[in-house]
Amino acid sequence: MLLARIVGTVVATRKDPRLVSNKLLLARPIDPKGKAEGNYLVAIDTVDAGVGETVLIVSGSSARMAAGMKDTPVDAAIVGIIDTIDVAE
Q1: For residue 5, what are the β-bridge partners?
Q2: In this structure, what CATH number is given to the domain that contains residue 44?
């Protein structure tokens, strides 16, 4: 699982028919303190997330197990919107 912040949207007018009616969002992985790290990724939204929100993303075969994604060609799915992160150091 990845922590990420939604930084934009992706519009694809031509795509696999199984992706029709699904929102694609551009996400940037972050560390637990909110600092950006790693490369951007496109993820399918299963929880109605929006730009600026911190989300939980699953990737690989786990993405296809997200709600409504069975047999859908996805590699990353947003499965949660994070309210707070507490790190004990």
Answers
A1: 28, 54
A2: 2.40.50.220
Other Cβ atoms within 10 Å of 56 Cβ, number? 16
Q: How far apart are CA 19 and CA 69, in angstroms?
A: 9
Q: For residue 36, what pLDDT is reported?
A: 96
The two structure tokens encoding residue 87: 């790190």
- Cα 80 from Cα 3, distance rounded (Å): 10
The segments of the chain whose pLDDT lies below 50 read: none
**What does pTM read for this prediction?**
0.91
Residue 68 lies in a domain: yes
Residue 24 inside a domain? The answer is yes
Q: Which helix (H) or strand (E) holds 44?
A: strand 41-45
Total domains, the chain:
1
User: How far is the C-alpha of 83 from the C-alpha of 10, rounded, in Å?
Assistant: 24
